[in-house]
Batch of 3 targets.
Target 1
Amino acid sequence: MTSRKARQSAIMAIIAAKDIETQDELVSELRRQGHDITQATISRDIKELGLIKTLTVGNKYKYVTKETMDSNISVKLKNVVRESVISVVTANNLVVVKTIGDGASVVSAAVEQMALSETLGVVADKSTILIVCADARDASFVQKKINELL
């Protein structure tokens, strides 16, 4: 039986070295390395490690740590966001982002890639994004993070 710490270290090394799209792929990689692992254990490890899925350039998903999420937003996407956003304002627990033209879909994709735990949901039409947060403090934090992209 592999210790939890060793197994979780192996998981972090695997996702740093490879694009792992599913829990099954992660289980297979761990088993190749000699870890006796179950799907339920992997699911718990993913939650404990705070791993999230992000969309790659090839339109596939992969596991990453939440801490590295900001750096995973491509420079190109940051430039599109920077040039599309007109304003970012809060209203209580809501963040409203106004964009030029049809920029809301791209900007909302960037916001979702940021995987901010403070967001409860993101809705966009052509030029407006509504981000729902639990409270005004979370909304202010989300506004700050979006402004950091600008």
Target 2
Amino acid sequence: MSSASVAALIATVLYVAVSILQARHAARRSEASMAPIYALAIPAVVLHGYAAIAMMSGESGFSFSLFRAGSLIFWMVNLSLLVSLLWRPLQNLMVVLFPLSALALLLSNFGPADGSRLTDLSGGMLTHISTSMLAYAVLAIAACQAAAVAMQDHQLRNRQTRGLVQLLPPLQLMESMLFEIVWVGLLLLTVSIGSGFLFIEDIFAQHLVHKTVLSLCAWLLFATLLWGRHQLGWRSQMAARFTLGGFVALALAYAGSKFVLELILERA
């Protein structure tokens, strides 16, 4: 077994342990001490990063297959989440994100392998790829946050004071965190799309046009949401709809096409 596989398995166990620990704190409605959370989460994210990069890289170039790129994106999501915890109470997202990250690691390590690799990447293309993945990671956190905001708002409207409402910060703070995350994600997405136009020879080529159009649709949805927040005071349900709609467009732009090409048509 390779060192990357060992790292992936250890990270998987740590992810599951952190998610169980945080879920127990949430169920008891008690404040979780961040010391044991970080003690498990930081090594998990470090090992995940090593495993993801090792499985993507090779002598013949970089593999951006569905499962391997997905594992790298989840690593970026978790890294962004750990950084965000320094100033925002987002630890309950670990209950959802960490088990999914464990699954992504296992699929990347033991799932179908893609033989095609990218070689001789220029600095411009590396900028485009890295900002695209970072934008996807940050906006994935925004999507999880939007789902929590929507459920919390629904419970409050129906005067349900137990369950999710008791586990989350006040709705106003949840909304504020959502828009902060969307702002960061939109900036990264702007850089990603801009670098694509600059460094990809024909961004509207047949094999790229769907990704370009869907990415632009996602950008418009997020930009419209932030405009509506500033000009019309959009909140809660409206914010959740636009955030989730924008993330679905991004997911279809990359993961949807990769799924069809690699797993259904069996070609890279």
Target 3
Amino acid sequence: MISMRRVTKEYPNSVIALQDVDLEIGKGEFVFLVGPSGAGKTTLLRLLFREEVPTSGSVIVNGHDVGRMRPRQIPFLRRQIGVVFQDFRLLPQRNVHENIAFALRVIEAHPREIKRRVAQVLELVGLSDRGHALPAQLSGGEQQRVALARAMVGRPVMLLADEPTGNLDPQNAEDMVRIMLEINRLGTTVVMATHAAHLVNRARQRVVAMEGGMIQRDELAASYHVEVNR
């Protein structure tokens, strides 16, 4: 599913965001990407959906070498990947249904199929009764669940989430992770970057810890920090 081999990402200002990163993530895994600000988590995610390209090394996502993709191939890669950000990025003048349906309309899906899929993902995130609401009429937790529904409506094989609970209160943050775990149980590979130690500790999934652009720890069924005397 994901294979990163000796990946380095250096920006023009000589800042090295990633250095010699090796990472393998299999189909159906749930991985927490943790570490301090500036550790390289966001850069790693951006490489996976081809918002960035590596300076050196290879990044293979679902069989595609993203560093060598031609521009016309990028949209096809991104249709296989759902992305959720810390800020919700909803269209303020469009209601919930329209925000979610937008991605399907771009690829000219049939209106009947759009209606069916939007209803399915709204049920998945627990917002079946909010389809006609505008973003301003929703709580922060509801807006992030709409963003998650939008990411999943295209039935991606992979979900990438960059600090999706950063703007949420503790209860909404827990609800978000619960839904993402359910999405994972249904077969979608999930990679979530987060600073929320309590959420990681409760979920007990694979943890990849980064610092200084390098992977410092990679453990299954792990906690946010290194555990002593397990």
